[in-house]
Design brief:
The chain has six helices and twelve strands. It is an alpha/beta fold and 283 residues long. Bound molecules: benzoic acid and fe (iii) ion (FE).
């Protein structure tokens, strides 16, 4: 680097910072950090950030960090609401056409949910409208996949996950793991999921309000589908007709993931949602 840009100037700010990187820096780290500095400086220059605005940003990030603990991850909510989680997911989970699309995992998945036989009811609190979830897990030729694990979770009828109300809901309410047989089919009972707001009592909620955005997610059932020899799918099915489908606070909706929700009269079951999962061969 020439002497002219050894000192920091507005015009050469990017070079001044990136030139400090040591030659032994890991190649990927160097690529990522050089690009981050380039785009961050371009942003600051583009909006001509004021001292007050920069101070506010530092305070916002500090409050975001203070909001985090083992049950609450405000930075993930920030990433989700800025569309970054969905963008990283899209880049890293490109699927061939016809294969089921991925979407965000969200903060409410739990390892170790109960394993149930097909047909079991995952709703343990007795609330909500009963719904049968059914379909098949198949490969891209439409052939059934035996031994696929289907890990499901959703909110209760009041719009809260069990982990948000540990003193109110039974543990593992509206969660379960099912394994497909030779025909690749699955069916289980739960409730018709309801729309709910993402946690909005922290800095991210304030940001959404300042931007005139609502915090709501359309009603959905989460699915994590795994099978030996296939790429895992982290996805949700969305309830057709939900009022928030086109304005999901975390941008998780894809047209291909909207599942039918049909009224049925079958004992205590009022609804049926059908969705087939199409897995891609690993590698
Ligand atoms: C969820 O669907 O559980 C979720 C996803 C992103 C942020 C908050 C909740
Ligand atoms: Fe959810």
């Amino acid at each position: 680097m020439s002497d002219a840009i050894d000192y920091f100037t507005e015009a050469h700010s990017v070079d001044a910072v990136n030139a400090r990187m040591g030659s032994e820096t890991d190649a990927r780290l160097a690529t990522v950090m050089a690009s981050l500095v380039k785009h961050l400086h371009a942003f600051v220059k583009d909006v001509e950030l004021t001292q007050d605005e920069w101070g506010f940003a530092i305070d916002f990030l500090t409050r975001t960090g203070h909001m985090c603990d083992e049950n609450r991850q405000e930075f993930i909510l920030l990433s989700d609401t800025l569309g970054v989680s969905m963008l990283v997911d899209a880049i890293n989970n490109r699927r061939p056409s016809g294969a089921t699309e991925n979407t965000v995992l969200g903060p409410f998945h739990l390892d170790g949910a109960p394993t149930y036989p097909m047909g079991a009811n995952i709703s343990l609190d007795g609330k909500g409208e009963r719904c049968l979830f059914e379909g098949r897990v198949v490969d891209r030729n439409g052939d059934p996949i035996e031994g696929a694990k289907i890990d499901v979770w959703c909110d209760n009828a009041d719009g809260f996950y069990d982990v948000q109300q540990p003193d109110v809901q039974p543990a593992f309410n509206n969660r379960g793991v099912f394994t497909t047989g030779a025909d690749g089919s699955y069916h289980f009972k739960g409730i018709r999921p309801v729309a709910y707001p993402i946690p909005d009592d922290g800095p991210v909620g304030k940001m959404l309000a300042a931007l005139g955005r609502h915090p709501n997610r359309p009603a959905h059932m989460h699915f994590l589908v795994t099978a030996p020899g296939y790429e895992q799918i982290v996805t949700h099915t969305f309830v057709a007709g939900d009022e928030w489908l086109t304005s999901d606070a975390v941008f998780g909706v894809k047209a291909s993931l909207i599942a039918s929700m049909k009224p049925v009269e079958d004992g205590d079951t009022q609804w049926k949602s059908t969705f087939d999962f199409v897995l891609t061969e690993a590698g």
